[in-house]
């Protein structure tokens, strides 16, 4: 699966930018990744619920909301209630991640848990049993266009093994620095869903970029 991040899109033309990856066949994105940042959990500020509500009206591509915010316990359920397909919170910010997952699922969304590059998976395995997706950050969250951190692939391999042996049932997603040079190693490590911002929206034709990444991931 390919999930283009609109963080690298033109915020004045978000509807059109999403249309560019909502065509048919290989050029169609599986999810649209929406990076919500609050200027506290990460040193950057982006968009929030009102923009997500507007996007939900103009696209039928499922929205994958990545909340890089403090107190997701308070704010995450609103994204699920609005109609986001998947809502991901950071384990480093969550006060009661099991309760968050329950609330997200009760509101009809998939529950996602994200780990920063230095956060150990082993410390959160019991929590992950309550989640549908695991978002492994392959850059420090906050900005698009950073370089991929290869050491996080160990975490991906661990997650893949736990899923394949039936100990976890999460979809494994990776976010940060995914492009033509890095997607194959991530695929080989066992990623199911690839977030790509600059590699999609920095390309002349975002739809073709989605198709190209998809082909590379499947190699
Ligand atoms: C970073 C965001 C990413 C970002 C990825 O904090 O979570 O989703 O948009 O951008 P690229 O693909 O350019 O690294
Ligand atoms: Zn993200």
TrEMBL record:
Establish whether keyword Lyase is in the entry: no
* Binding residues for a divalent metal cation: 33, 35, 66, 175
The cofactor note from the UniProt entry for this protein is: Binds 1 divalent metal cation per subunit.
Which catalysed reactions does the entry list for this protein? Answer: D-ribulose 5-phosphate = D-xylulose 5-phosphate
GO MF terms, alphabetically ordered: D-ribulose-phosphate 3-epimerase activity; metal ion binding
Cofactor section: Zn(2+); Fe(2+); Mn(2+); a divalent metal cation
Q: Which Gene3D superfamilies match?
A: Aldolase class I
What would be one Gene Ontology cellular-component term for the protein?
Answer: cytoplasm
Top EC class of this enzyme: isomerase
Enzyme Commission no: 5.1.3.1
Instruction: Give the pathway listed in the UniProt entry for this protein.
Output: Carbohydrate degradation
Q: Which residues form the active site?
A: 35 (proton acceptor), 175 (proton donor)
Q: Which Pfam families match?
A: Ribul_P_3_epim (PF00834)
BP terms from Gene Ontology: pentose catabolic process; pentose-phosphate shunt
Binding of substrate occurs at: 5, 66, 142-145, 175-177, 197-198
Question: Secretion signal: which residues?
Answer: none
Physiological role: Catalyzes the reversible epimerization of D-ribulose 5-phosphate to D-xylulose 5-phosphate.
According to its UniProt record, which protein family does this protein belong to? Belongs to the ribulose-phosphate 3-epimerase family.
Q: Write down what this protein is called.
A: Ribulose-phosphate 3-epimerase
Q: Which organism is it from?
A: Prauserella muralis
